[in-house]
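Summary for the steering committee. One of the milestones for this cycle was to obtain a three-dimensional model of the protein with zinc ion bound, which we needed before selecting residues for the alanine scan. The sequence and ligand used are listed below.
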Amino acid sequence: MISEILKRIFYPDDFGCIVCSRRARTYKEHSGAAICDECIKTFLKADGFLCTKCGRKVGSEDSLCKMCAKNDFAFEKAASVYVYEGSVRTVVHKLKYSGEEWLANFAAAEMSKKYETLGWNCDFITFVPMYRAKERARGYNQAELLARNVAENTGIECLPALLRTKNTTPQSYLDTAERMANLTGAIKVSEEYKNKIENKRILVIDDILTTGSSLNECAKALIGAGAEKVYGLCMCSVSD
Ligand SMILES: [Zn+2]
Ligand SMILES: [Zn+2]
């Protein structure tokens, strides 16, 4: 503690990198935190051979991942910025559980750049909803933070169009089959936004694409309410 305080006195503009603890000036310096350039360089980008549907990294060109080959997902396409491996996991974890909201700003900058390359022309942005009581306990929904930042960067409106109607078990505790079943019918279009969905192209934001089931449930609800197409954009995806 004392050494932290002394560091702040002698290096007032430097903050410990949240991944490696080295002092860093890079990126956002909110709440005395940063990510250093060295760590950013180690984050594995989701590029090369990607699933033609969900955008996760796959082993060969022009192929579907195992999940997309097995399921007829309701979303049109998805993309992500990073592969959920290595030190980027620390960043996601901090964003999710440690109130490091400024990280949404860091991740959303990359997500916005990616979106601009996709040509999806979405009419508005929304996000994978969190159960209300859970969101109150955490203080925020990280998917919403990402979505609001992407909206700000791209100039596309962000609407909280979806609601989670069941307090589902966290997906990270479940295997693939359980994840799919866990979410069935758990996401609905909010009454307030029902009349804004028809014939719209909608971008749904989330932090991690794992099985694709969260995104699929959102897409099913939106298409059920008349959306023309639903796309997904995530900070990370698990490779095939
Ligand atoms: Zn670092
Ligand atoms: Zn896929």
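Key point for the committee: The longest strand covers residues 201-209.
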